[in-house]
Design brief:
Layout (H helix, E strand, L loop, with lengths): L1 E5 L11 E5 L2 H5 L4 E4 L4 H5 L6 H7 L5 E4 L5 H4 L16 E4 H7 L8 E5 L2 E9 L7 E9 L1 H10 L1
Parallel strand pairs: 4-8
Antiparallel strand pairs: 1-2, 3-5, 6-7, 7-8
The structure holds adenosine-5'-triphosphate.
Adenosine-5'-triphosphate binds next to strand 6 and strand 8.
Protein name: Protein kinase domain-containing protein
GO molecular function: ATP binding
Keywords: ATP-binding, Nucleotide-binding
């Protein structure tokens, strides 16, 4: 019911932004486990390390990185509510379903694993550009692992 993600721009500092979003259980029931990725916005602009596929097209970079977990329970994350950002229905975030990310990484195939950090494994994936649907974007998708949750605990 929670997703954590970070967005990174190729060629810049790896650790740039990490935020938590809460997803209501009814959304899950409707297969709406979603990951929100900042698109072009004022707030995104103010953080130069956040990458969007619009920006990617402008900069020539086609790489961004996401972190997602499908296994985190409400119980285990309930105490981290203070980290969540309000859902902003009118924002310009791009939303991915968990299913899309799963497909992009061929069910988080080990063959597509490109690295592992303290919070989980990173996979190479391919998603469609919203601006040009026929265009594919290479992305790095990070899946938050249980080890990652253990890392979060002492910080809070
Ligand atoms: N956008 C990316 N493009 C290519 N490889 C990446 C990308 N993001 C991560 N990786 C690979 O995955 C590895 C782990 O990345 P990750 O971001 O998880 O590292 P970390 O910052 O040490 O982890 P954490 O933030 O979880 O502590 C990297 O060392 C790199 O090899």
């Amino acid at each position: 019911d929670w997703c954590v993600f970070c967005i990174e721009q190729e060629g810049q500092s790896r650790r740039s932004a990490m935020q938590c979003f809460r997803f209501a259980s009814w959304e899950k029931e409707r297969d709406k486990e979603e990951l929100q990725v900042p698109a072009r916005s004022q707030s995104a602009r103010s953080n130069s390390s956040i990458s969007t596929d619009h920006d990617a097209r402008r900069s020539g970079s086609e790489c961004c990185s996401l972190t997602v977990s499908s296994e985190i329970s409400v119980e285990s994350f309930g105490r981290y509510r203070q980290l969540s950002l309000p859902q902003r229905p009118n924002n310009d975030l791009r939303i991915f379903t968990f299913q899309e990310l799963k497909s992009a990484t061929r069910s988080f195939s080990r063959a597509l694993m490109i690295g592992e950090g303290g919070f989980g494994c990173v996979y190479r994936g391919t998603i469609r550009s919203t601006l040009e649907p026929r265009r594919s974007l290479d992305v790095a998708i990070k899946q938050l692992g249980r080890k990652g949750l253990q890392v979060i605990t002492p910080i809070l």
